[in-house]
Amino acid sequence: MLNIILFGAPGCGKGTQSELLEKKYGLKHVSTGQIIRNEIASKTPLGLEMESYISRGELAPDNIVIEMVEHYLEDAKSADIKGTIFDGFPRTEHQASVFDTVLAQRDMKVDVMIYMDVPEEELVQRILLRGKDSGRADDASEDVIRNRIKIYNAQTAVVAQHYLVQEKYEAVDSVGTIDEVFERICNVIDRYI
Ligand code: ADP
């Protein structure tokens, strides 16, 4: 099973590219942000708890997110899938190290982490544009977007180092059309399959 992490700041295009990759390679796309939004929409106790974090642009607590991913891995183990694209996870150093452990417990591992590189000002513009029709509360306000990028720089950017030392890190220039970026990402993935 191929496990790919698509990594990068909010607005870098992880969701868009994950969907294209899911189709092309038959991999399962798992977005922790989307799982959280589904919980919020269904008004589950977990969703209600997480709504306050997301609306401020903060990260959800590590233990909750890790539990969600473990649930997914349990299902994935028994299902006949080729592999997974993890989008938006891991987002902290703690998540990354626990992820190594829970994967190893199931005889799995991360194969590659692909960093989607986009300059910060472009990120803000992209998310504001997306907010016009995504209906996502965390995309609508520039303050919340800037806070998400601040938190990304403070807590998430270090995760790249985790995979760099494991020699699983690949950077992809992610400025350009969706198709251009897709082609660059596919060129990386093709080396791993
Ligand atoms: P984006 O990458 O554009 O910020 P996501 O859909 O990946 O969008 O995530 C939306 C929000 O969900 C994040 O701002 C964060 O609050 C929460 N979230 C998603 N994944 C995680 C995670 N792994 N750990 C903590 N919080 C998360």
What's the end-to-end separation, in Å?
10 Å
Task: Spell out the helices and strands N to C.
Answer: EHEHHHEHEHHHHEH
Question: What is the 3D form?
Answer: globular
Q: What fraction strand?
A: 5-15%
The CATH architecture would be 3-Layer(aba) Sandwich
Major sheet size, sense and barrel closure: 5 strands, parallel
**In terms of structural class, how would the helical and strand content be classed?**
alpha/beta
Round the Cα radius of gyration to an integer and report it.
16 Å
Low-confidence stretches: none
Bound molecules: adenosine-5'-diphosphate
Number of structural domains: 1
Helix content: 55-70%
Q: Which quaternary structure do these chains form?
A: single chain
Query: What does the average pLDDT come to?
Result: 95
Descriptive overview:
The chain is of the alpha/beta class and 193 residues long. The protein has one domain: 3-Layer(aba) Sandwich (Rossmann fold), CATH 3.40.50.300. Helix content is 60%, strand content 13%. It is built from ten helices and five strands. It has helices at 14-25, 32-41, 45-56, 62-78, 93-104, 120-134, 137-140, 142-156, 159-165, 178-189, and strands spanning 2-7, 28-31, 83-87, 112-117, 169-173. A five-stranded parallel β-sheet has the order 2-3-1-4-5. Helix 2 crosses helix 3 (45-56) and helix 6 crosses helix 8. The longest helix is centred in the middle third of the chain and has 17 residues, at 62-78. The radius of gyration is 16 Å and the shape is globular. The termini are close together. The model has no long low-confidence stretch (mean pLDDT 95). It binds adenosine-5'-diphosphate.
